[in-house]
Amino acid sequence: MQFASADPLTADEIASAPVHLPRPSRLAEPLPGTEELGPRAARALETLGLHTVGDLLEHLPRARGEARTIATLQREETATLLVEVRRIDTRSVRRRGMKPRVEATVADHTGSTRISFFNQPWLVQRYPPGTRLLLTVRADPRGRISVTAHAPTDQQLAGEAQVAQYPASEGIDSTRILALMREHRAAIADTLEPLPGRLRARERLPDRPAALAALHFPGDEGEAERGRRRLAFDELLLVQLALLRRRARRESAAAAPSLDAARDLTRRWLETGLPFPLTNDQADALEQIDRDLAEARPMQRLLMGEVGSGKTVVALFALLRAVEQGWQGALMAPTETLAEQHFATIQALMPGEAVPAALLTGSTTHSRRTDVLGKLANGELRLVVGTHALIEPDVRFARLAVAVVDEQHRFGVRQRAALDAKGAEVDGTQLSPHVLHMTATPIPRTLALVEHGDLDHTVLKELPRGRRPIQTFVASGERERARAYERIREELRAGRQAFVVCPLVEESEALQAKAARAEFERLRDTELRDFRVVLMHGQLKAREKQESMAAFAAGGADVLVATSVIEVGIDVPNATVMLVEDAERYGISQLHQLRGRIGRGEHPSLCLLFGPKDSARLKALAAHRDGFELAQIDLRLRKEGELIGVRQHGFAQFKVAQLPDDEALLERARREAAALVQDDPGLERPEHALLAQALAASYGAEALAPIPA
Ligand code: ADP
Ligand code: MG
Question: What is the 577 CA–ligand 2 centroid distance (Å)?
Answer without folding.
Answer: 22
